[in-house]
Amino acid sequence: MTQPPPIPPTGGPSGAPPPIPRAAAPVPAPPSTPNAADRAQRQVTEQTRTYPCGNCGAPLAFVPERQCLGCSSCGTSYPIELDQSARIVKHDLQSTMNQLAQRAPLGLASIGGNEHVVTCQACGGKTIFNGSLTATRCPYCATPIQRDDVQDAPERLALDAVLPLQVGEPQARDSIEKWINSRWFAPTEFKKYRTLGSFTSVYMSYYTYDVEATTGYSGQRGDNYTVVVGSGDNQHTETRIAWRSVSGVVHNSIRDLPELANTGMDEPRVRELEPWPIQAAVPYTPEFVAGHLSRTYDRDPGDVFDRDARPRVDAQVESTIRYDIGGDHQRISRKQTSFDMLQFMYLLLPMWLLTVNFDGKPFQVVVNGLTGEVQGQRPWSKVKIAAAVIAGLILIGVIVFLYQRMR
């Protein structure tokens, strides 16, 4: 059986990540390409990590278009070299939850309360980490800062993997522009999101689950048949159902079922970003997060499975049972599921997040950081809707008038 993972980050109260300055356009890399891992600098007193450029000292950030650390000042690139011997390990859910209970008996451990302040080692300014935020930029000099105290905390789960961001800011903004411009009944003011809201890249915490389930069931199978009833003018055909008792055992094998581990998000919209290419995930290394926001988990894998993943597993099990019963109709009177295997993996998935406060309410629009797909919510313009209704009524009135004149 796979051993539980070591335990690092903690989730405080959630909230949408704060904005970061717009990233500069990538600059072509010069021939020299030192390794990205060599650029990490750890500040022991602050328990943070930064990435200064070895050529000019400016802060480095992960460039999605080139999949490397890049300096927007001098153009130097630093490739991210993965350990080819590293493997992504999946963990048994129950034994991991038992270990978490022993190390954090009071439940999900805190990462320092609602607010954690660190001193930027580049400019001396104060940077605030709110809630489950673990990577951000200094608001004064834009230096990317990562919290090592979260990743190294013994009562927290260690990250297993990451899907590196592939959609850069220009592509993300283009996707957002097209999405917003296609919302015909959104208020005109909402389309001025550049001045009303924040738009930023962020890595969200996810768990993926692997499940082997065996389910015994009993129920009824219904088959349609027709009979002729009545006589004379009242004779007609009726469809009836013949029911018979059935029972059986079905097996379900589910792999890489993704579930969001953060709170404060529009979960139905975020789920619509699926499917995620989980098979393309790589072992976690902090260089992929440099220059982008990142959040540790707010909910543990046991809670997320019970609340979010288990209903989806049950739905697949029920679908399998109905297929196994066959016929035209199915009734399930009993089902008992046991898990032959229940494993999970903790990873980061990339998004671009637009949060707009309009008319006193927050609206979230999310962009899949791998495909550019956009999902979100937007307000409705009462003025535009009323105008459309009036225009429709006028059009109907004109059509009726012309029809009557033609008659």
UniProtKB/TrEMBL annotation:
Residues 1-44 are annotated as: Disordered. The keyword Membrane applies. This is Primosomal protein N' (Replication factor Y)-superfamily II helicase. The chain crosses the membrane at residues 385-403. Residues 1-33 have a biased composition (Pro residues). It comes from the Bacteria. Keywords: Membrane, Transmembrane, Transmembrane helix.
